[in-house]
Amino acid sequence: MYGGRGYIQLTGDFNYGPAGQYLGIDLLGNPDLALSLQWSAPIARWYWTVARNINPYADNLDMGRVNAAIGYPAGAEDQRRCDSFKSALQYLTGSIPAGVICTRPAKLKGDTSQLTRPQFDALAKNGGGLG
């Protein structure tokens, strides 16, 4: 019922509920709103900046932490996504800057998909671990 929808592929009632509450819409009762042109971009912006503070990781070219913040499982997908990021940089700017980080820290290799922003921030900052 709460599968991936919209630009950011919002998933889970743990995201639909807070996103809807933040935006003042009933995403739990009408999850297809996440598909709409009216709400898909605001939902993506909410996720990127409110649910998770992803910009600093992206600005530092730290794709490992971006992937963890988004909630992608650690593994081969990290490298594939990082390679796609590098290809986009090459295409858009003509070069790949030094310092692109494709691996995530060991403390972020567990399932980060359902962590709240405070939980993720504490884990990323304090170096705890995921079971």
Structural overview:
- The protein has six helices and no strands.
- It has helices at residues 13-23, 37-51, 55-59, 63-70, 76-93, 117-126.
- Helix 1 packs across helix 2 (37-51).
Helices and strands in order:
Elements (H helix, E strand, L loop, with lengths): L12 H11 L13 H15 L3 H5 L3 H8 L5 H18 L23 H10 L5
Helix pairs in contact: 1-2
Briefly characterize the structure:
The chain has helices spanning 13-23, 37-51, 55-59, 63-70, 76-93, 117-126.
Instruction: Provide a count of the helices.
Output: 6
Radius of gyration computed on alpha carbons? 15 Å
Report the strand count: 0
- Main β-sheet, in a few words? none
Task: Name the average pLDDT.
Answer: 89
Low-confidence stretches: 127-131
Oligomer: single chain
SS strand fraction: under 5%
Distance between the termini: 27 Å
Shape annotation: globular
Overall SS class = mainly alpha
Helices and strands, in order, run as: HHHHHH
Q: Percent of residues in helical segments?
A: 40-55%
